[in-house]
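Troubleshooting log. The previous run stalled partway through. Resubmitting the same three chains, unchanged.
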Amino acid sequence: MTESVRTRGSISRRLTLQLAAIAALLALLSWGMIRGFSQQAAEQTQDNILAASVTAIAEELRSEAGQIRLEIPYAAFSMLGAINEERVFYRIVSDGETLTGYDDLPVVQDGEISAGVTFETLTYRGDSVRMAMVGRTLFASERAVPVLVAVAQTRNAVDAISARISRAAALVSVAFFVLAAGLSFWAARVSLRPLTAMAQTVARRGPSDLSPFETTAPHEIAPLLAALNRFMDRLSASLSRSEDFIAEAAHRVRTPLATVRTQAEIALHAVTRDENKEIMRRVIRAVDESSRSAGQLLDHAMVSFRTDNLTRNDVDLVDLVTEVVNGLRPTAEMKDIRILTELSPLRVQGDAILLQNALRNVLDNAIKYSPADSRVTITLRQAGAGAEIRICDQGRGVNGADTATLTERFRRGENVGNVVGSGLGLTIAHEVARAHGGRLDLAPARKGTGTCVTLSLPFS
Amino acid sequence: MRFLLVEDNQELAASIVTRMGLDGHVVDHAAALDAAETCLRCTEYDLILLDVMLPDGDGRDFLSRHRSDRTTPVIVLTARSQVSDRVGMLDLGADDYITKPFDFSELEARIRAVLRRRGGAADNRITLGDVTVDLLAGTLRVATRDVTLRNRELRLLEVFIRNPGQILSKAQLLDRLFSFDAEITENAIEVYVARLRRRLDGGSPRIETVRGMGYRMTVQ
Amino acid sequence: MRHAFASILLSAALIALAGAMAAFEVEEHGRFPGTPADGPELRLIGTAELRVFAPLIEDFQRRHPEITVDYTTASSAEIFRALMEEQARFDLAISSAMDLQLKIANDGFARSYTSRETTRLPSWARWRDQVFAFTSEPAVVVISPERFEGLELPRSRHQLVSLLRDHPERFRGAVGTYDVRESGLGYLFATQEARSSDAFWRLAEVLGRLDVQLYCCSGQMIDDVASGRLAMAYNVLGSYADQYVDPRSELEIVTLEDYRNVMLRTVLIPATAQDPARAGLFVDHLLRSGNAANFEGPRILPPLRDPAMRDTSDFGPIRLGPALLVYLDELNRTAFLDAWSNSVEQP
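Second attempt completed without errors. Output:
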């Protein structure tokens, strides 16, 4: 059934993709944030050390004999070397003149000197550097001299650290994404589980089980369940209408036919002239023929209907064959036809009514086309992984046609209307066999004249 | 034999009553279930012929009610699909079923089969001279000799034994056997008559040939 | 070896020419032609004397015979000047003055170089993938046992100060040390010692009172101890001393235990290098030679990690880092030299 449904998209896939997209967004966001924080942290660390260094130097500033004196403390630079291998530049400007250091290091000139440590990022000697500056005012030669201390460091390590953390963050983000995507997939599966469970409940049902579903469902799915139940209701009603229709049609056709036949038979006894009797016989034969056809057409309709929704139950083939034989024995006895059975105890999975119908049609044919005082043999035996019911008669071929022609006609599955009679009976049997995964074969009897019809049914 | 026919189609019912009358049976007709109940209360029947689609109810309900307090055999006349109803009917206690339209010979055959299974009916034996035929068992007793008859021989003998002294034309006999085999010919009648004569050999009834007319059974 | 000496003789004639070309002062010059002679050439400048360094070059040429090596000896200050101010074209600068080497790199005049050898260096032996140490050489005291007769050899600076103070007549004019104003290495040792040992200034004062003899280089100091002119040379490069102290000589090498000055000899590839790729090969060669475990060539310079030395707990070489810039600062240098001169040159 599923292959006939055109599927478009998948809720599970869509849900997974949406959740994964959200996860990707979050991963990206977290990566960006970690990156930002790490950059900031690395910069902060460098700033702190630069500030410590520049403060240490500033504290050594002193004025001696009207001169600004300074001995850069060893620690001021050794602390810079302790945490990284950045290049260090410094400059001490006193009253606009470079006291010592790199006199091309661009520092903020006086006027803007503040007491606190200020920072700046700039390019110096082709490298991006971070510079800390602090101002001091000293008294020399009886005047206030502004002194600026600037220490700068290249930022390669900061960049390297943030690149490394960025890489690690990217890795974490990717891992987070993979995990989240996996969880999304799982979550999608879990949330769709009631739907899957419902689909399984529907699939598990037998074809003729049209009762409403009693299972509980999450409220999102409840409308679907309700709709399904309404549909089942309608289907069930429609099916029982079809069955009623077939029964009604049979009743309408057969009751008048029965009247005609009975009247004709009465007339047959009443008339005395041979030609009149012959006419009545023809009438009766015609009625019989048409009732047989009607019966087979109705059978066929019923078989088609049932094979579309094949029920499979455990069927005892011995019981089934015996019942069919008992049903037809009086008919056979009328022609002094003996029905011989040879039955091995076998069971198959199938629709008992269909199997009975198929067998009855085949046996009915055999009796109808057998000469008087003959035998019909029914053998039930195992053949491979299935059961085989063989019905052999001693007739001269069904309906006068030789077996080969009949088989050919039957195999071609010609239009039902053209093969009414023996052909349709066999067609019914053939369809039943096929619906059960088996087959129907026709063959001339091995000994003497006659035809053998074999109905093969697999065990499961 | 006495039958109760439960059938709502008047025309069909009338035909069946007439046709079965030809075979010497008495058939009461009820057009509905309640009429059938009335009939069943007054008279004992050998067998009930029951249609399942009736104006005042489903024959199946009747069948199940009937089975609970009576043993009269029931043959269901059905026009419904042979597939779906058959099993249900037999489960509910019908003895057999026959699909409309039916061959009266087949109906008789089935009636006999049912009665045979149920242990007989009031008059399943006919005696003529020193010959007694059991119509259900298909056996013939000629003086002290027991003979088992083939079905066609039995049917033909039944015609003769029910109409002793009467001349029966080949055509009339053919009518009796017609249902059994549509292809049967008048020559076949001669064959069966010859067989019957052999079966009756040694008994007092015999089948005479009335030249140009047919056959007649006489008792010596 | 004969080949190498021939080339030294040959190139000795060229010293004048080289000196004329370079505005900086060249002490020695050697050329080690490869085969063929017109192959690629590596120009090296270093503080080590040619005779000390030649074996390393020859060993390198065994591996890379096609490379001609040109070696110039100059003082560390001259090397610094050559590279920083004159943009002289050298492929490698090998110096014992760690501070100057570091400043060259800090100021952007060195190239980065990474190889399997450089990554195997401990972090204290390299800076920024630009300055690589390949020896660790302690500063030692070289003593003439003859002049110390009857005296106990000092084990620490305090003992040394007491010894000198107690025997002024014996040591007057008989103690030599670096003139830190001239010698880069001497300045490095002095500043590091001043920073690490409280005995430094007292020792300087005592030395000044004893009319200390000032030298530019370790070699001369050792020569004078060997000849008997000096009783003791203070702060001599251990590696030089090791070469002199052979079984024939009478010299004794004393390592003071209170604080040990260990200099790292470093190499860098100047930004002006013509052939940085081959310079890298030579760096790798030096680093291999500095690795005591796997160097098979002749060892003249001590290895970077002498197993014997590493085991002593006081092995603390001067750190390669920006702190070295502190004493290079003009103000600091002036202040330090003033203080030093005042102590050492007493009227």
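Takeaways: The two ends of chain B are 29 Å apart (CA to CA). Chain B is about 45% helix and 25% strand.
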